Amino acid sequence: MAYTRGNSAQIIVGAAALFSYEPLTGSSILTASDLPTQVDNVSYKETLSSDTDFRNVGYTSNGLELQFQPDFGEVKVDQVLDVAKLYKQGMQVNLKTTFAEATLENLLLATAGQDADLGIATTGAFDGQNVLNLSAGQIGECPLERGLIAVGPGTGDCAAGSSIERIYVAYRALSIESVTVSAKRDEATMFEVSFRLLPEDTSGAYGKIVDRTLSVTSA
After folding, report:
1. CA distances from 120 to 106, 112, 124, 129, 165 (A)
2. What is the pLDDT of residue 196?
3. Closest CA to 65 of 219, 197, 183, 164
C-alpha cells in the first residue's frame, strides 16, 4: 500500500447529545436489551428522542470526556533494574461533562439522588410547584445508578451514505464527585458532573462505542 499522509475524514470534531435512561418503572440500570432498535437512515438521536424511557439532558458545555484509567502492578527481579513484568490489577472508567441546562432533573442526575426526591409539591407554601428535596439520605441507602447514551459525530466524508455517527453507551453510571450549584451575576448556572462507570453483571462490560453509518440527508 502506498504511503499517504493521513485521511482527514477520520478526524472527529463536535459535541455529543447526552441521554439518561429513566424508565417509568423498573431499574434505571441499562442493559443491552433496553437499547432502542436502530431505524435505517435515521439518526439514533431521533430514535432516543421518541423513546419515553430516555431523557435528553439538553445543552452541555465543553463536550463529553470518556477516561480510561487502568491500574498495573509490577513484578521486580534481581537481574533487571526495571520491572520485568506488568500485570493489570484494576480498571476505572469515568465520563465527564457539564450540564448547561440547570433543571432540577439534571441536578438530580448530577447528585445521584433518589427519584422520590423530585416531584410536585401537594401541600404547603409551594403547592403545585416542582420541588427537589435536598435529602441527607440514610444509612444503607444506595445511590442511584443510571444508564447513559451519548450520540455525537463520527468519521466520514459527508458523502451520501457514508456519514457516521458515534454512539457511546454506558450501562451503569454513578455521579461520584461534588456538584456546585451557583447563582452569579456574570456566569451561567451549570452543573459539572463526573460519572463513574461500572461494569454490568452479565458480561462485565462498561458499555460500548458504536460507529453507525447513515445517510447524511437524514441525520
Report:
1. 16, 19, 11, 5, 37
2. 96
3. 197
